[in-house]
Amino acid sequence: MPSVNAQIKRGSAELAVLTLLAGQPLHGYEIAKQIEAQTGGVLRFDMASLYPMLHRLERKSWVKAEWQTLPNGRRRRCYRLTASGRKQIAPLRAQWRAFFRALQRVTGFQNA
Amino acid sequence: MPDWKQIVRKNLRVLGVCSPEFTEELAAHLEDSYEAFLREGLPAEVAFQHTMGQIEGRRRVWLVMRFLQEELMTGFIRKVALPGLLTSVAAGFFYWALALDHTPPKLIWLVGGQLPLWWWCLLPICGALGALLSQRNRGSRLQRIAASLLPSWVMGTFILLMFAVGFTFSGLVNHYWSLSDRLESMGLVPPGFVIIPAAFSLLGAGIAEVSTKKSAA
After folding, report:
1. Closest Cβ–Cβ partner in B32, B59, B74 for A48
2. CB 3.0-4.6 Å disulfide test: which of A82, A97, A109, B139 passes with B134?
3. Is the entire prediction scored with pTM above 0.80?
């Protein structure tokens, strides 16, 4: 699997997390695992990249974190998308679409 | 089952970055990760090593640095830059006032150079000012320290540039400044205007921290 440049990963991470949380609230480990699974391992978050980003999104009020007790009795800090966070998804998608279109024009690369 | 909270506390407690809530969150992540490795069929010892690999060595340093960076940059202007700027102005004012006041001894002389002894003695006031202003703006401990050290950081950068440009320029246009002069100035200026002032400012920030805690108690 080709590795993706760190800068690109960082830029795409917020969109990936927000999109994932639009589906359902998740805790950190689930977010990391789901993104890894859905991208076939191309996007992989370690703790050093995931949690600072989640806390940054929380400070921006794009996500809200709440402690929840799971059926097995364990407490997990679950992140839920806020209305403000939901509004960010469309502009971020538009930015990435514009970026990929520009890249296509330069490189002649076509989506499969 | 390993005590993940204890492990996180032990590995990542730096400058109070790891709050109890965050410790619990990271411990939960490690716990889930460890159990996933066990489900994959790894022996407990190997699963533990794989899990620990996420917070050990280079990854541990990276994790701590990312959190310090995040913490420092949150509300940077209000919590670090503005208090730091006022601290710099105060330090600059004291230096100017002492230079204006010809009451000796305001300098100590050392191997041909001069070091601003009395200025150093006033710097704890500046450091405390920076820390208190940052605290007033709800700055974290790291941000309070950064605000009190901002003048030294700015001075350090300025001196570094000054040396780089100055040495290159003087090397091109004249040869009066001997190598020993250069080495002497390099040995005096950075400690005298960066390192020692930083220590005195930090002392002031520490005093402010302790006195605030005492008054709160």
Report:
1. B59
2. B139
3. no
